[in-house]
Structures are given as structure tokens and as C-alpha cells.
Amino acid sequence: MPPRKKSSPLQELLTSEAQDAKLLAALLVSPADQVIASYVIGGLDKATAETPLVTTQRIFSHAESRAQLAQLQESVFYDLDGRRLICRTLMLPSLDATTPHLLIVMTTAEQTYRRSVNKLIRAIENATGSF
Q1: Residue 75 lies in domain
Q2: CATH classification of the domain holding 112
């Protein structure tokens, strides 16, 4: 059996917090469009599971969209199946002091999310020393 890849502390944190909050998916992306940590609930179809990454790539491929999102602090999108995609920017100076990271969370349309997302952001900031 090949050795198991060791996950990062941010990966473990994101997975734990996303599971506790019963999120469908969560993705933390660096300003350089690199996935730092991701979580997808089991049983989600491939196209739906890839939605946060596709959305991130669209945002980061357009500097204007990224700048607008940073000003808004939060954007919420709905898909045709009633799921909600929440995009939040967060500054993590210990990782990149000049450009915001992007956190994308997917929930059902009826699920409350603000408290869970705020808790997740605080946990990420605490873990990276960026509070």
C-alpha cells in the first residue's frame, strides 16, 4: 500500500469546520489561484463538486471581477438546483500581505451560513496568525 499523503493543518481545519457546519463544499484559494484547502461532502456529483473551483478560476481570470469582489467582501450566487455559492475575500497577511485570498462555500439554498462562514474565517485567520 502506498504511503498516505499527509494533509496540511489548513486542510484539516477546513475539512473539520465544513463538516461541522454541514457545508456541501468549501475551497480556500490563494491570490495566485492555487488551492490551499478544499472540502466536498461525499455523494456530490462531479459537476457540482467542481463548481467552487470553476467559479474561482473565473473570478481570478478577470482582475476587474476580483477587485469588485474584494470591495464587496461577499457575493452570493444561486444555481438552478437551489444551491447557494458564497464567495468571501479574506486577508491573510502571514501568507500574502497585499492581495486577498478567496473562500468559496457551497450550501443548500435554505441553509443558514453566515455564522458558519464567519467561524471558518476566524479559524483560518487564527491558524495562519492573521488575526
Answers
A1: 9-128
A2: 3.30.450.30
